[in-house]
Write a structure and sequence with these properties.
The complex is a heterodimer of chains A (288) and B (307). Chain A has 288 residues and is mainly α. Chain A is 72% helix and 1% strand. Chain A has helices at 3-28, 35-45, 53-64, 69-91, 107-111, 113-134, 142-156, 161-170, 176-199, 203-227, 240-258, 266-281, and strands at residues 100-101, 104-105. The longest helix of chain A is centred in the N-terminal third of the chain and has 26 residues, at 3-28. Helix content of chain B is 74%, strand content 1%. Chain B is built from 15 helices and two strands. Chain B has helices spanning 3-31, 38-48, 55-66, 71-93, 109-113, 115-136, 143-157, 162-172, 182-207, 212-239, 242-245, 251-254, 260-264, 266-282, 289-304, and strands at 102-103, 106-107. The chains are: A mainly alpha (288), B mainly alpha (307). At the A-B interface, α2, α4, α6, α7 and α8 of A face α2, α4, α6, α7 and α8 of B.
């Protein structure tokens, strides 16, 4: 497809969507008593420069199947909340010990480890609460909400992102790809699947979204590793050459999974192709 | 109800709670099997299966049975509340929080598995509680009711529940007793302790098919026994030894924490406990007398426990 002409529209699509998501997130966490914990939660969830990849993916997937954007927003916000919670806990001194996140002091650097743990502990349930209390009942059946809860809970849990973080920290008898897939592929996979669930995708379609999302999430991380290879403090998952091969494979894989959705028309699928291109090249989206 | 009836129901209650706790233990054991990565799941199981009193899950099941539901309808919800309780204990015990080495007479989770695994095991239990509630609850319970249960459980954990209580508790250490009143102490306990007991009873009422009015009565009942639980805990902390408690005694005094005995004295604290027990029992008036027995006994058990 002609990427330069479609990029313009897509950029508008993302910009508008991200603005809407930021607005919803802002409303989702008002400051109440005790103020300190709300401020800690807001600091990470509303951090400037957050790319909102999970919610954007979720909303796009919902719209792909003709779902109303309003049906997807609570789930989209929930994904951003649990994502923020995972990052807050991953940065802790007893974990990755990262004092900086997105160019700003990480949550525990500002609020202390105790508040950082509690902010994460509060964001996980807030996400679930957000889904069940704000998803419009006339747009999404209650049984679908339960599938969303299970999907998100499994993604962040002991066989998902927590497993990825553990293997990343402590190693063990796992192939290198395990941590990669669990830690980085899981969130994108979950976001795509949740959007599909809200939009009414069939089981086959959900399966394609799953494989697509996983590939895009891993692709994003492989490219990220390549980009800051120079000042890297952590172990590389693979040599540069192998990483570039992996990026190519993941890119092809992700686009292949999209073929079944081509029938929904260029405009609907375009965001998903652009996600792959963005993960691979990081071109237009960074300057919103 | 005479005092004799009370003693009788307390006696019956011991076999009731043992029987229920046994089913809960079996359900928890199979809900969290040992899987890869082994160490996280070992850490989850270490704290989850450490033989707590299972007050919350038993309350959940008893509430379900009170409104006419079968035990099996409440079991996933009962397991979920125990997972949340365990998760909050693991995180509260961490060095950057309360820094406890001993819990239920055993080394705390981070002492055995390290802080990183303790944080992850807590997070995993938190999310698994929701997965379990959402996916393992019997199809006999309507999705609308399960969704409502998910919302109640979520509310009990975050900034309107456990987390709010812990935040205010942490920030209260070393405060002058003249600067904080009962209201402040009650905020801590209503959130840190009562919120999850409330959720336990409410979840049981929801999945058991209770009416809105029944569910609200269960909520009030549980709030009362939640506060009661904490008043009794505070009293035990100043009157019992570490060995009797199975955890570090007098640690509230050492940590300079606010307690009921400190604010109102031991005698007034005991009277307050009595009042809460009465208020709790009032919520059960009008229910079938056979079916209220476990909850009445639970209130007495919490009021009279020695550790």
């Amino acid at each position: 497809s002609s990427s330069s002409s479609s990029n313009f529209d897509l950029r508008k699509y993302w910009t508008k969507l991200i603005r809407e998501i930021n607005q919803k997130l802002e409303e989702a966490i008002p400051v109440k008593y005790p103020a300190g914990i709300y401020e800690a939660m807001r600091y990470s969830v509303l951090a400037e420069g957050a790319k909102r990849a999970p919610p954007v993916m979720c909303v796009a997937a919902c719209e792909l199947f003709g779902g109303d954007r309003l049906a997807a927003f609570p789930t989209a916000c929930a994904l951003e909340m649990v994502h923020a919670a995972s990052l807050i806990h991953d940065d802790l001194p007893c974990m990755d010990d990262d004092p900086v996140r997105r160019g700003k002091p990480s949550n525990h650097t500002v609020f202390g480890s105790d508040m950082a743990i509690l902010a994460g502990d509060a964001l996980f349930p807030l996400g679930f609460q957000h889904i069940v209390s704000l998803t419009p009942p006339h747009l999404v059946p209650r049984s679908t909400l339960l599938r969303l809860i299970s999907e998100i809970a499994r993604t962040v849990g002991s066989t998902g992102m927590a497993a990825g973080q553990y293997v990343d920290l402590e190693g063990g008898p796992f192939p290198i790809s395990f941590a990669h897939e669990k830690k980085f592929g899981a969130m994108a996979e979950c976001s795509a699947v949740c959007g599909g669930l809200v939009g009414g995708a069939s089981d086959d379609e959900l399966h394609s979204l799953r494989l697509y999302g996983r590939a895009v999430g891993m692709l994003y991380q492989v490219v990220d590793d390549l980009r800051d290879d120079k000042n890297k403090k952590k172990k590389s998952y693979a040599g540069t050459e192998r990483a570039m091969e992996m990026a190519q494979e993941l890119s092809v894989k992700a686009k292949k999974e999209l073929q079944v959705f081509d029938k929904y028309g260029d405009t609907s699928v375009a965001p998903f192709y652009s996600f792959v291109d963005y993960a691979a090249h990081r071109h237009f989206l960074l300057h919103l | 109800i005479t005092k004799e009836d009370n003693l009788k129901s307390t006696f019956d209650f011991m076999s009731y709670i043992l029987r229920k706790a046994d089913s809960v233990n079996k359900a928890l054991d199979s809900a969290v099997p040992l899987r890869e990565p082994l160490k996280i799941h070992e850490a989850m199981r270490y704290s989850l299966l450490a033989g707590g009193k299972r007050v919350r899950p038993v309350l959940c099941i008893a509430a379900c049975e009170l409104v006419g539901g079968q035990e099996s309808l409440a079991m996933p919800a009962a397991c979920a509340v125990e997972m949340i309780h365990t998760m909050s204990l693991i995180h509260d015990d961490l060095p950057c929080m309360d820094n406890d080495d001993l819990r239920r007479g055993k080394p705390t989770n981070h002492k055995v598995f390290g802080e990183d695994v303790a944080v992850l095991a807590g997070d995993a239990l938190l999310s698994f509680a929701f997965e379990h509630l959402a996916s393992a609850t019997s199809p006999e319970v309507s999705p609308t009711r399960v969704v409502r249960a998910v919302g109640e459980l979520a509310k009990a954990i975050g900034t309107e529940g456990l987390v709010a209580g812990q935040v205010v508790d942490i920030s209260s250490e070393g405060l002058d007793l003249n600067d904080v009143g009962l209201e402040h102490l009650e905020f801590i306990h209503l959130h840190k302790t009562a919120a999850l007991l409330e959720a336990s009873a409410v979840l049981g009422g929801i999945v058991g098919g209770g009416s809105d009015e029944e569910i609200e009565r269960l909520r009030k009942f549980a709030r009362c026994i939640g506060l009661l639980f904490q008043v009794v805990d505070d009293i035990l902390d100043v009157t019992k030894s570490s060995q009797e408690l199975g955890k570090t005694a007098g640690k509230d005094l050492i940590a300079d924490k606010l307690t009921y005995p400190k604010i109102m004295g031991l005698e007034k604290s005991r009277e307050f406990a009595e009042k809460l027990n009465r208020e709790a029992r009032d919520q059960l008036l009008g229910f079938d007398s056979d079916k209220v027995a476990p909850l009445l006994a639970l209130a007495n058990y919490i009021a009279n426990r020695q550790n």
